[in-house]
Write a structure and sequence with these properties.
This protein has 14 helices and ten strands. The chain has an eight-stranded parallel β-barrel, surrounded by six helices. The chain has a two-stranded parallel ribbon with strand order 9-10. The longest helix is centred in the middle third of the chain and has 17 residues. The chain is elongated and about 85 Å long. The protein starts with about 30 loop residues before the first strand and ends in a 6-residue tail after the last helix.
Length: about 400
């Protein structure tokens, strides 16, 4: 059964498919290629231990992720050891690791036992000039040589011409045409390295790359510098991308990467495209990565944040009590969450009564003065500068009796 079947669980805009009638949405849904253990750890301040990497890999694999990008073995012996440990765990998932476009890095990746090497070679003129001093005329030759070297050693090749969204179109098309002719690459990554592209740009590039490569699968890897990581990834999927690169909680360099939980929920709920992820596990896996990374989620983080399904406003809660979809687009249980009513400055009598019912497990006590309690709640919330915790509300309830 599709995860969204079985009762009213969603209520989204009927306009979501507008303008997409001529798109390239794939007959087979795209797969998720998660890079929490590689790009996620590149966020300043994050250092995963080997054991934490194994735990995260196990949890993410259990979600239904197709491809785990396990790290960059050249970074440190610990990284290489973690990759080997995950591979040895036998999680039943496709595995890959990142390497620079050198024979030595390919050999190191191969020694870790993964299925594929992700060959990283900057393609934009800016990146090549600053990092490689690699002329455009030599780029395709080097890419083919290293890809061929990796294939000869039994590795699948996922080529990552990073800074794709700021590169020269002629060079990108020449690269993909060469890959098509030589048959030495299994997948090509569209990398929005600095998050500098719009959703329209990503969609257009997916189409261009698909045409130039003759159907070589395209993976989109989007950074979140403008807060568009999820939007760009979804746009790529709707344009025909075969793989979606994400991280749990959107962790990653600078402003992070496309958030797995946001991307897969948007695909499932907004477009009805099941990418094979167990949505009900999302919140639990998010918590594992939050603890291991030490990066605390903002309370209003979409999908998995503590307040993603929390409601305080009196007007909002009044409607919510009659029909939850007046305030929510999908049921919180779908992603392993639960709905919460909180009380504070903007609460109304109906929402306060509902919260009291929740706390006492039935009708409010006959001697409880709800109007006086509401006045007290608002005053206490103003003094505290926040909503009230359940224990604080219970304490106020004991002082607001009739009579």
């Amino acid at each position: 059964m599709n995860q969204l079947e079985g009762g009213d669980r969603t209520a989204v805009s009927p306009w979501n498919w507008s303008g997409l009638e001529g798109g390239r949405v794939r007959a087979r849904p795209p797969r998720v290629a998660d890079c929490t253990l590689r790009d996620g750890e590149q966020q300043p301040g994050i250092v995963f231990t080997v054991d934490q990497k194994v735990e995260i890999a196990r949890a993410v694999a259990a979600l239904g992720v197709h491809d785990l990008e396990l790290g960059t073995p050249a970074v440190s012996p610990d990284d290489a050891e973690a990759i080997r440990r995950v591979v040895d765990a036998g999680l039943g998932v496709y595995t890959s690791a990142l390497g620079r476009a050198t024979e030595a890095d390919v050999d190191l990746v191969r020694s870790c036992g993964v299925d594929a090497v992700r060959l990283s070679l900057p393609i934009s003129e800016r990146q090549r000039a600053a990092k490689m001093r690699l002329p455009a005329g030599e780029y395709v030759e080097r890419a083919l040589r290293i890809a061929g070297y990796a294939k000869e050693r039994g590795l699948d090749v996922i080529f990552s011409p990073y800074d794709t969204t700021r590169c020269d179109r002629t060079l990108l098309e020449a690269l993909l045409d060469a890959f098509r002719r030589e048959g030495c690459v299994d997948r090509v990554r569209l990398v929005d390295t600095t998050g500098a592209a719009s959703p329209q740009a990503v969609a257009a590039l997916v189409g261009l790359m698909d045409d130039a490569g003759g159907g070589i699968p395209i993976e989109v890897h989007c950074h979140n510098d403008f807060g568009l990581g999820t939007a760009n990834t979804v746009a790529g999927a709707l344009a025909g991308a075969a793989y979606l690169s994400t991280t749990i909680n959107g962790i990653g360099e600078r402003s992070g990467n496309a958030s797995l939980e946001e991307v897969v929920t948007a695909m499932a709920v907004l477009y009805g495209i099941d990418v094979g992820i167990d949505l009900a596990r999302l919140t639990a896996v998010s918590a594992i990565v939050e603890t291991a990374s030490g990066v605390r989620l903002q309370p209003h983080k979409a999908v998995v944040g503590r307040n993603a399904f929390a409601h305080e406003s009196g007007l909002v809660v009044a409607g919510l009590l009659r029909d939850p979809f007046t305030a929510e687009a999908y049921a919180p249980e779908l992603v392993g969450q639960r709905r919460r009513i909180v009380v504070g400055k903007t609460s109304g009598r109906a929402s306060l009564e509902a919260k009291v019912r929740e706390l006492v497990g039935g009708d409010p006590p006959d001697d409880l003065d709800l109007d006086a309690l509401l006045t007290g709640v608002k005053a206490a919330a103003i003094d505290a500068g926040r909503s009230l915790e359940d224990d604080e509300l219970r304490a106020l309830m004991t002082t607001r009796s009739k009579g």
